[in-house]
Amino acid sequence: MAEDFHKPTQFSGSKFESFQGGEDPALISRVAHETAHALLARVRRDPDPAVVDRLVAYTDEHGIDAVAELWSRATPRSLPGALWRLYLVRLLIRQDPEGTAFLYQRGTEVTVAIDPLVAGAVAPTGPGEIIALADQILRGIFTGDFAVALDRAAAFCRVTSVGCTSIADDLETTQPVRSTELTTRALRFSTTAQEFGSCARLWRSESLD
């Protein structure tokens, strides 16, 4: 953990950035896994509401780079990798709640899957509802069924991916650049959904390291 915290880092909503840092990959991996397991075990053993509130809102005050320094380079299908992606998705939502709610709401309108029910956002989903969903999912990893929280995150990503694809199709002729950006974002959300789903299955089998 950085000794000096930074102000919240602003991310483009279309990017899942990788972070650089550290010289020893083995050390980075060990620290990532140890801190993730220690944090989760400590909070889940005694989920004090004030502590959970601070952890959910941690990046609002300290910035995503403080979390990234620990977990961003962990493999996607690992506990630190899952925690990193949960915090990153929450940050992307909070930085653009209007845009994210629009993409998600479109997804709920065109998907044929049960993902909107699994994600659990209030419908219709506006900016306030999408922020509440992000906080509920992150809170769930500390106070509820961890696998269920991951399933909800995966469902959110799938719905949003479908929404991105639908709107990209609408804009293909009139705004081709924007259409391409949304198609790329849809792929990123879809990939992240797969990673969350894999982590949920590993957690249920007690194999999420």
UniProtKB/TrEMBL annotation:
It comes from the Bacteria. The keyword Transcription applies. The keyword Transcription applies. Keywords: DNA-directed RNA polymerase, Transcription. GO terms for cellular component: DNA-directed RNA polymerase complex. This is DNA-directed RNA polymerase subunit beta.
